[in-house]
Amino acid sequence: MFTSIRERLVSKRFLQIRYFSVIRPQEQGIEPPVHQDIFKSGQKFGSFRIGDLTFYSLIENFAKVGDLLSLEKVFNQMKHERRVFIEGNFILAFKAYGKAKKAEKALDLFDKMLVEYQCRPSVRSFNSVMNVVIHQGLFDKALDLFSCVIIQEKRVSPNMLTYNLIIKVLCKLGRIERAIEMFREMPLKKCTPDVFTYCTLMDGLCKEDRLDEAVCLLDEMQVEGCFPTAATFNVLINGLCKKGDLARAAKVVENMFLKGCIPNEVTYNTLIHGLCLKGKLDKAISLLDRMVSNKCIPNDVTYSTIINGLVKQGRVVDGVSMLTSMEKRGHKTNQYIYSTLINGFFREGKPELALKIWLDMISKGLKPNIVLYGTLVDGLCREMKPDKAKDVISEMEKMGCKPNAFVYSSLMKGYFNTGNTDKALDVWKEVELNVGVRNEVCYSVVIHGLCSNGKLKEAVTVWENMLSKGYKPDVIAYTSITHGLCNNGFVEEGLKLFNQMMSCGCKPDVVTYNILLTALCKNGCVSRAIDLLNCMLDNGCDPDMATCNIFLKALKEEGNDGSEFLEELVIRLDKQKSVVGACNIIVVMLQKYLVPKASTWEIVIQQVCKPKKIRAAIDRCWNDVYVVERRCPVPTIH
């Protein structure tokens, strides 16, 4: 029977089909399985011929496995035989190019659709190629494509998805006003915004710190009959939490409940993260319990956020308790959590507990990664045990985990801090051999270490080498070399380097300024130091206690207690709206037993205290006093 069917097929001049295996040709070392004579004599039915569907099937299969070479050969063969292309062929090809991160190829194919392949692109093809370009992060190209095809040539009429994609691009580029224009244009083009449109625009507004507009958009969305989802509310909650406006975030959650939208794990994680940022760890833990009671399962992100917050507040032991609670609830710990706890114990000066956590992690079968090894190396070096840290690096290499430049930087720092410059420089040479690339951090560590150990000449050599290799010095490198120059009496050279630093766009910090201020005051150039202080304030860098002490010492030598100088500094900082800076100067004055004037107190108190809160506090106090008087009447004295 098989033979007879085969003969009948041949007699009717049907195509002789060869079986095609979908394999990558490069893996077999042969040409792709598309023969030039395939389907040569297919019978025509209207615009289609027998065998077209097989071509389409080949396109689908090659696109699915990412065999782009074979895919292109099929397209060429079809074009050569003047086969009919359908839009679905191109959409499959666009997706394949997208997976391979070849957006240029997708754009090129889109341009050829009509001219070379006689297939008119619709909005589906346009959206598909736009999606490929956006996913590859080529936002400017996506805008150019939209402008060319939609606005100028009007080849395609945009639909809702088109607008969603372009609004997303504009928000990514920070062009929020243009995104709003596109959003307002949608109804004119008979495109109704959906939940995704609103979410994208609200997220863009939140990132631009335009939270009021984002909240108004939520109200508008509901008026227009587009009902928000949990994702919509989460966008707003995230924006408000990042700004620190937890009270308003809580109101959004209430609104969420009123709309019948149940908070999910993203909602809870966002709120917990916001509470941790504000240092309200106890409330974050309470919210975790509420999350569990509402049958919303916490994930690794939830626990990681709380543990990180506890460690930052110096509550590493509580972080370990949270880790135990996490494990009891059946959650697996990860390297990030252990890294956070180990780092926290080292920073608290408890290396034995850090090592205990490390051993606990190993006993549970969790394999250390480069972050964990780096944390352990850095912690041991902080404890002035660089040799032990070196042993950890050796173990790390045996386990097949290659140290990076940051791990070596910690080790060099450890040797420099213990005064062992030679060993630090040996590691410096090792970085070049093992890692192959020295980054800016490595150079900064070496320059700082050499300057701190009085080796200015060697530090300058490394500095010049850094510049010759095209590396851009960071603030630590600039500050270190400036410190070295000033300590060796080269103050003018230090100031020149400071000006170079400013011109290169590297913003000096308070440490940089203090080094130069100290050098100028030591040389008796107090007026120049004051000029530099003015420059410091103009650049938005607040003075600290060290800055104040530098000037107080210099003024004391001239018989001035410095109180007037500090008073003026408070006024200057107040004018610049730097409340924290002004408060810090007041603290310095009190520590030095320099009593601020009443007018100075008034300036700071008005900035720190909010009138509504003061009024509420006063009312509460009066209320408490009244209640006490009612309960315990004052006895009359006869």
Automatic annotation (TrEMBL):
Repeat in keyword set: yes
Domain of life: Eukaryota
Gene3D superfamilies: Tetratricopeptide repeat domain (1.25.40.10)
Alphabetical keyword list: Repeat
Keyword Repeat among UniProt keywords: yes
Protein family: Belongs to the PPR family. P subfamily.
Name by which UniProt lists this protein: Pentatricopeptide repeat-containing protein
